[in-house]
Amino acid sequence: MKKNNVLLGLVMCGVSIAYYMTVSKLSEKAAMYPKFIAMVLFLLSFVFTIKTIFIDKNEEDSSAMFEGFLPKQFAFVLAMAFVYVFLIKILGYFFSTALFLLVTLGGLRAKRVAIILTSIGVCAFIFVVFKVLLNVPLPKGFIF
């Protein structure tokens, strides 16, 4: 596990350097925020790598990390996410989101009241923030 973490940290350092070099080609004003993000990513990746090498002396048991993992539930949620992305173009954003939440939470055997409140709450929150406050257009489908 320690080798994987060191490798991950080094790869992320490389990604942040490549990202920084890519956004450096933009104008000074346009590149300011992306450069900041690249520097933060590099700093965090570097600290993670150093911490893994020098501070984490004991390798943790990787089996404990996935103790409650249920592969069938993961596969179900992943499949529903792919269907959701496909349905956005057909049914529109709000109807697809509500349907995705209803089916996914139902498949995970959440309580009915929680399923309904979550679906309505998420859709209402997104509507208020993006449509009302920010005036951002959301995808409309062929049907809705």
Summed up, the domain count is 2
Give the H and E element order: HHHHHH
Classify the secondary structure makeup into a structural class: mainly alpha
Oligomerization state: single chain
Give the overall shape: flat
Helix content: over 70%
Strand content: under 5%
Helix segment tally: 6
Uncertain residue ranges: none
**Strand runs, count:** 0
What's the pLDDT, averaged over the residues? Answer: 88
Termini, distance in Å? 48 Å
Our Rg estimate from Cα atoms comes to 21 Å
| Sheet with the most strands, sense and barrel status | none
Characterize the structure shown.
It is built from six helices and no strands. The N and C termini lie far apart (48 Å). It has helices spanning 2-23, 28-55, 62-65, 71-91, 93-107, 112-133. 9% of the residues are buried. It is mostly helical. Helix 1 runs antiparallel to helix 2, helix 4 packs antiparallel against helix 5 and helix 5 packs antiparallel against helix 6 (112-133). It has two domains: 2-65; 71-133.
